[in-house]
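This section describes the prediction task in plain terms. A model, or a person checking by hand, is given the sequence of a single protein chain and must write out its three-dimensional structure as a string of tokens. No templates, partner chains or ligands are provided. The sample shown here is typical of the held-out split.
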Amino acid sequence: MSSALVQYAAAALSDRGRKRSGNEDAYGISLEDGAFVVCDGMGGAAAGEVASAIAVDEVMRRLKSRAVSDPLPAAAEAAIEAANLAVYTRSQSSRKLSGMGTTLVALVVEQQRAWVLNVGDSRCYLRRGGALRQITVDHSLVEEQVRSGRIKPSEAERSPLRNVITRALGTQSSVTSDVFPVEVEPGDLFLLCSDGLTRELSDPIIASLLALDLPLDRLCERLVNAANRAGGHDNITCLLVRAEA
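The expected answer:
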């Protein structure tokens, strides 16, 4: 791996899609703190919008205020736990918000070290050297069925249970996030996204769009526009983070 120091650039775009009346996705970016988050809320009325906003705000607030001596991955896990409790507590305070929750995918970076954390089926991908790979593992019923060999990946794409997630922020008083360490190389491109993107676009299509030689904000536009052209059945959020030498 190259020993060159890296800096990071980021851009994001969130769109309500073509079918939904509102947008229950939320995202946060802090280059200064090396923190990037995407959440996809769920719940009746506007509860999903409330859940995702609380989660993003709490995670970003915790990471901004962390002590320099606190290890970054542990601080990120603690921030997600705090966000979970904040959403859960708020859901208990109002009948309208009862049962609300949100998925979460986060990237935290510290020079050439990075950690990806997720709860639910919002994803993180890494494009390196022209190849795209999914870092996170969906916390969903169909993903569990695929991993156990009960159904094939092609069957999972058509399953009526695709929307059933098995882990979310705010639905219980505690939650465990998956953590994936990554050794970063200059040129690496991370994509954090809600399932409104991945339900409409296959991985090969996402890979082809990320290969375009465009600024990050234009790449976000291309991804969102492609998802809308493919149906736009859900809210669409994509957040790109590039490591630059």
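For orientation: The chain has a mean pLDDT of 92.
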